[in-house]
Amino acid sequence: MEIIYSVFSFTFLAQVFRMMTPYYLGASGANFSERSGVINISIEGFMNMAAFSFAVFCIMTGSILLSLILAVIVNILFSILFSMFTVTLKINQIVTGVGFNLLIAGVTKFLMVFLFSSSSNTPRIFVGYELSDNITAFSIALIFISGYVLYRTKFGLRLRSAGENPWAAESLGIKVRQYKYAGVLISGVLSALGGIWLVSSQHNYSDGMIAGRGYIALAAMIIGKWKPVNIFFACLMFAAFEALEITLQISGAEIPTQIIQMLPYLITILVLIGFIGKTKPPAADGIPY
Amino acid sequence: MKSNFLSVFLSLAFTFIILTILIVVIGKDPLEVYSLIYTDVFTSGYGIGQTLFKATPLIFIACGLAVCFHASLFNIGAEGQLNAGSFVIALTALQLDSLPLVLAIAISAVAGFTAAGIVGLIPAIIKVKKGVSEVITTIMMNFVILALINYLMVDFFAVKSTLRTVSIGDKNMLGKASDIFPFFEGSSLNITFVASLVTAFLVYVLIYKSTFGYKLRAVGFNEVASKYIGIKVSKVVIASFFIGAGIASFAGLNFIFGYKGYYELGFSNNIGFTAIAVALLAKNNPIGIIFSSILFAALDYGGLAVNQLIPKEVMLVVQGLIILSILSSDSIVRNFYTKKGLV
């Protein structure tokens, strides 16, 4: 009974909205990238890179704002590299994504040991809840921002045309590759904020702290059918699962948390099969241009 | 063929240069590091043994992946598949401890192969029936399978307050290579390494010398065209996923029968993703995979050897650099040859 009470409480709801943040940032980022036609499966790696560099810069500089900017810049650099691979060199996007995930996992693990002589976590970072709350607020605003940018601006129209039919877009004089670069770049910046949120709410960086959130973000994007509002609800659902998992763990109930852990992925597979509505990615998603 | 060698050479050279720069930047002597890797990995029987021991699972998994990759199927799910297979191998082996070792291993291997194969079948069937790309489904399957195994382990099979199964017992373990060749004294190298070489050879024959392999490569090269010459694409997709995932499960034979004697959650340590890099470096050629696996294993073990000078995790960076540089040098070399009209 107590579990049911704790689930239907305001604190629980607030927790769900907080936990939604990294999912929605990652998923919106992935959405911008896929709308431009580039599948980015290294959202997980991008989040990891930004989380780590934010933690390092915080410890080095002591300034939260400066660290945030620097961490975003690091991710922009990685995004540019990712675009060079997938757009300029037209290398397979999936394999590139796997490669970036491996490289970033390696870089962060190596620097952890090198800088902090610890393979598990950094020293504590004193970031107030202000930053993580602001990022959460931004991610809620992002529903409207990304909807507006994608559907109400020239930039969004052209970005989407690059992902739907790049050949037609190019014939109309749209510089398709620039829009693909832009799409990947936005995914890098937004997933950076997702990683920074994790660090600022957990007050340190620990190895493996992203824990599949980048992949859940991809799942949310698919379930949300590449539409900002739908993606938001998918993220809320996954965040509710996560919050429920924690509530159950604390309450010591006899419900196996592993089953809840696998739900996001299982639901995604069911959605892809077509059990829960039809999904259709951008037409030229994943095709090098 | 020539362009393949060129791009592999370029990427390894590039990685080597970056690594050297990295070592200099953190204030260590690259010569010292390299000579330490050389003496530890290549001049001692223990080092060679450990390298080949670590190469064994990579060869199995990368060969399995190569089957899928040749059909242009991006199987990112090796991690889940090999864990499902290894888990079943351990459970089966535990039931068979009264049987002769060879028989117990054979039955466990078949059971593991089937279990992993079934896990591989799910994305294959979804792809064939619903036209859903295997990339996302295999990634999602990784998480589903690992959570499922975690649940089964914690609630049913694991030894209390650990994440491993009961041990199959010493008498059911494979002997170490050092029992016959004292040269490998202390290393965990065992006969499954030979089995991995045989597997690589068989997969080579399967891909390049069999009718199935011809169909496999045809589908990978041009799905539409192969449909028109009468190849049943969906059958090829399903078969290659089943076989590919199944082979990956043999990684568990090395760990369970040759090393620890039990299945442990997390034993794979993301080797299912590393194997993607291994297969890629070898251009999905099983014979090449033997060498790229040994290279990656040498890096892994070499990391331990130099840990006193630089953190061993540097080798994870190197592995990441190799996969990205082979991708880019492939593309650059291919463009170069195309421009010169050599291809």
Can you describe this structure in just a few lines?
By secondary structure, chain A is mainly α.
What does this 3D model show about the protein?
- The complex is a heterodimer of chains A (289) and B (343).
- With 289 residues, chain A is an all-alpha fold.
- Chain A has one domain: Orthogonal Bundle (ABC transporter involved in vitamin B12 uptake, BtuC).
- Chain A has helices at 2-7, 10-35, 43-61, 64-88, 93-116, 129-152, 154-164, 166-171, 176-202, 213-223, 228-251, 257-273.
- The radius of gyration of chain A is 19 Å and the shape is globular.
- By secondary structure, chain B is an all-alpha fold.
- Chain B has a single domain (29-309), classed as ABC transporter involved in vitamin B12 uptake, BtuC.
- Chain B has 14 helices and no strands.
- In chain B, helix 3 packs across helix 12.
- Classes of the chains: A mainly alpha (289), B mainly alpha (343).
Properties at a glance:
heterodimer; A: 289 residues; mainly alpha; ABC transporter involved in vitamin B12 uptake, BtuC; 12 helices; B: 343 residues
Quick one: biggest sheet of chain B? none
Biggest sheet layout of chain A: none
Number of strands of chain B: 0
Question: What is the alpha-carbon Rg of chain A in Å?
Answer: 19 Å
Number of domains of chain A: 1
State the CATH architecture of chain A. Orthogonal Bundle
Range of strand content of chain A: under 5%
- Radius of gyration of chain B, Cα only, in angstroms? 21 Å
CATH architecture of chain B: Orthogonal Bundle
Layout of helices and strands, plus pairs?
The complex is a heterodimer of chains A (about 290) and B (about 350).
Chain A: H1 2-7, H2 10-35, H3 43-61, H4 64-88, H5 93-116, H6 129-152, H7 154-164, H8 166-171, H9 176-202, H10 213-223, H11 228-251, H12 257-273
Chain B: H1 2-25, H2 30-42, H3 45-70, H4 78-95, H5 101-130, H6 134-157, H7 192-209, H8 211-221, H9 223-228, H10 233-248, H11 251-260, H12 271-281, H13 286-305, H14 314-340
Helix pairs in contact in B: 1-14, 2-13, 3-7, 3-8, 3-10, 3-11, 3-12, 3-13, 4-5, 4-6, 4-10, 4-11, 4-12, 5-6, 5-10, 7-8, 7-13, 8-10, 12-13, 12-14, 13-14
